[in-house]
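Encode chain A's predicted structure.
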Amino acid sequence: MLRYILFFLTLFLLVGCSQKVDYQSSKSYYIVIKNSSIKVADTGFIRRGNNEINLQIFAASTPILDLHVKQDVCIGYTCLSKISFNKRFFGFSHYESFVDELFNLQPIYHKTNLVKTPNGFEQKIETKDYSIIYRVDGENLYFKDKKNRILIKLKELK
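Encoded structure for chain A:
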């Protein structure tokens, strides 16, 4: 009886973790992420699919950061709601779809202070809680929050 229970438990764990995600794009980037808890700068990949983003950073062919954005945000095996992730990662809770818009290279905060550029856009947004400079140039991203000391750069590798 114990063998059957172990067999079904193992089967359940293997099948439950084997969902294949169909990503529509996968691009390599030089990625810089700095905040109060993470400071990394190395090559990585961003995979985008239906309502899902996967950011992986590698050092010496070993993943050092594996970020999954779905309904929740997971770093490794730790998952948080998007609002909780924003508060922990960005130092401010922002709004739920903030991280989705950021990593999908879309305008944030309902296009507040949006200035179109030849290959993208720029936004400068300042409140008492954050001071954001956000630029998208083609597939490259620059995000800096001076008040919360956050820096994210994505430079596409071709």
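The first helix runs from residue 2 to 16.
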